[in-house]
Amino acid sequence: LEARASEVATGRGIMQEQLGAQAVQRRRAPVRLRRLAVGMVGDMAAALSKPGFRRGGCVDDRTLVSELAAANGRLVLANDNEVNLRSEDGLSKCAEFVRELEVCADGLNCLVADRSYRKAFTVNYRSLFPDMRRRYRVEVLEACVEQLDSFCVNGTRYRLGDPVLRLSGAMLESWRCLRARLRLFSASSSLVTLREIMDAIEGLDIAWARFEHCFIRELIKIEECARGVIADAAKLEQQLRRAERVHGPASDAARKLRRDFAACIASLNAVANDHRKGRDDLDGDVLERAYDSLSGRKRPAKWLDAVRIIAEQVVKSWDALRAHLREVTSCLDKVDPYLKNNRGLVQRLAAWEESWELGQRYLGGALGRALSSMASSVARAMDAAPEFESMCEDRDPELFVVLPRVMWLAFLRAPLEHTSWMYDVLPKAFAAPGAGSSSPLGADLRAFVDTAEQLRRRLAVHKGDEAADAILLARAIGGDVSDINCLSPDDREALRRFALELEGWSIAAQRSCPNDWNSCVAVLLRVLTGLRASCAISRSLV
Question: Is the pTM here over 0.85, yes or no?
Answer without folding.
Answer: no
